[in-house]
């Protein structure tokens, strides 16, 4: 039996009702969910209604009626049961305050698969467009039941009411309602303004393509009918793809497409051949773009009103025509021309008050004045853009240019078939400084601009210039930049150096203002992200191209919000790309500098130049060519012969030239050559094969199907030449060399050590071909689990990621040295990381002789020294011990020489004392004062210096011979004397222990290496208590 209750109005802001307490109690006891229940309301009229009964299906909020609860206990006869409903929603259903309704509970309704609705008014549709994401996320919480023909209401932000009418449901139900679930698809059909309202475009900013220009109201082609004004975009003459007919008269002439001309002047004959062209008199006004807040003298002003953006294509705003300014309309004669894009107007000679891409409100004149323009070019009108002049090209980045251009064209085509685009379609181009990111996005924007399918406007902004502006100014500028691009759409907005404005937060840099960066990032996301409430309601026809150093250099919120649909990384140019870039730059320079030419007999070998410029970026190559041209100019200033650009000019240009990628990298220089190293012949051979050959014979190794070795481990006894080998690599292999010490990497902050490792490999990649040398590798990458702090564990994990064999290290070689390979984490020793381990063992007799010979090159050894005898007497000595032996012997010679020189000097002083100088002071003052002994001693010393100088001057030749430095040689006696006090640095016990470790490392090489003695097992941590 249906229950009865009175209607009571409560502002619920939804299409749901609160049930009376008598119904709410049983539902609560039976645990009926509100989502599974529908309420049927039937009005009980006081008088018979000739139009039929009023019925409605609504949902339940899950709550009880508060008014019913307050009056439920009054009395049995006067007890008041009420059902609460929103007054605005009740009015739409035909219910009023105090009406009696019958309440029916429906438990077995079917679920709706799809529900099609439409707004009741066009104003409702505009609200839905603006807040589409909010309506989509909150509709199911406000509506539970749908019935064909019934009204459902949705509140936006709890304030604005949107009225919808159900058009159809699936599965179809005859007179019954369906329940809405999370699997129900709810569609809302657009509802536009009427055509007479769409013709009022004077106060609105409409899209500049033909699809959004209001069509002419004439349908029968009668001239007496009123024609609509058109908002046309002034297309630059330079990209109009063809010569336009010239008019010699004083009238201002412009051309539009045939369809646009038909909407402006129906009387015009556009079906016949355009020879001659009949131009009709019209008027135009220039629409003013949004004001620039940075140009305001009173500080940053708020961005323009929302009428600068299109909410729905073809819809016009209700604002007054303020964008056209106060100037009077100018007179223009408009004629049709084949091949021009719709929605555009082209001037053969633009007036002074019209700039490229301006929006012009063109209206047909009431006067039937015409002029005739004779055509002198092809009747088909404009030609293909490729025939109009040469294009500037960027060499070496063809694939990147194609990907960027395809992304832009694909997005514009998608926008053409989409009414509303939420969020900005964005592309991010990343790369290190000097790789040409800015040139790439500018070239892409120019290519898309000249494409006949788009004709886009480009607005370029270097945001690094505004990084220090106040936050309020930056907020206004961010909105203004998009508003201006949207004003001229279809358009491309380029934000260069975006990471300078919304960079990543660095927690261990105390001076960084993280709050400011985060605030600016949130402002950027609130405008450009599709998920933000204050986002652009419709970004149709506008793309965003941004550049940054990397995705990691941007704030993490940018990646979380998914602002950029695609990210393209610009890598440093390879050998082929550098060859193309150098050839293109040289060709362009020689074209502009006609006095300089290439040598006809020996032209430039661009392949060789590309090989010599490994690690150079595009900017570096441009600077290098400029320096080479400068070398030619210097030579031509002193030579009457023609200026010829040769390879020698590039060689001279590379002197003292540091590429941009190497300016912040500390590269180690070394004077150690292979000849300075004795022994270790097999190790040197493998080092040369691994490091020197792939660079020296690059084209040959490029044909190899195998992955090249990129990591080497030098291990061996202390003092056996591991670090010395690495120093020789820095000089002999022609590679850049970066040496790493343990304290440079380790940092107490979580994440800082990993960042140091990443920065190391990035620096090495920037300086490639490069060798990254880790000395005492066991202290940097020990076995994981032995560190109580976990710092080295994180370093090992990061190094495993950087040295992953699946990715490979292109042009970066890792060289590690250690005396304890058993302490290194076994994962780093697997193939693909440190591929090969080279033993630097204790030298034998022949190797010790070779080491003594190499060390003896730096000192003077007497011919009487027998190196074989010394090598035999130094059993157990390492290379460092032998070097110390020779250097100590050299010190013995020096000490003996110093002692001999001191004795000779003492003898000379004694002889001087035996012959004192006698003198008489002449011309002393007549005061009678007697000179003191100190004064006479000083005078005697001065006279002795004068006498010695005269002796040296007389016997200058003899003095020169005597003063020649005597060469002191190291004799066998010196070495034997030093050998008596010298012992090997590696004791026999230590050597035997290391022998066991190295033998186990070589023979039993596996993933489970034995733990070092007294070091604890893997997984155990040792801490000091």
Automatic annotation (TrEMBL):
Residues 201-227 have a biased composition (Polar residues). It catalyses: ATP + H2O = ADP + phosphate + H(+). It is found in: Membrane. The keyword Nucleotide-binding applies. Its main location: membrane. GO terms for cellular component: cytosol; peroxisomal membrane. One of its GO terms (biological process) is protein import into peroxisome matrix. Residues 191-227, 288-329 are annotated as: Disordered. Residues 423-574, 708-844 form the AAA+ ATPase domain. PROSITE patterns: AAA (PS00674). GO terms for molecular function: ATP binding; ATP hydrolysis activity. InterPro entries: AAA+_ATPase, AAA_ATPase_domain, AAA_lid_3, Asp_de-COase-like_dom_sf, ATPase_AAA_core, ATPase_AAA_CS, CDC48_domain_2-like_sf, P-loop_NTPase. Keywords: ATP-binding, Hydrolase, Membrane, Nucleotide-binding, Peroxisome biogenesis, Protein transport, Transport. It comes from the Eukaryota. Belongs to the AAA ATPase family. PANTHER family: AAA-FAMILY ATPASE (PTHR23077), PEROXISOMAL ATPASE PEX1 (PTHR23077:SF12). This is Peroxisomal ATPase PEX1. It comes from Tricholomella constricta.
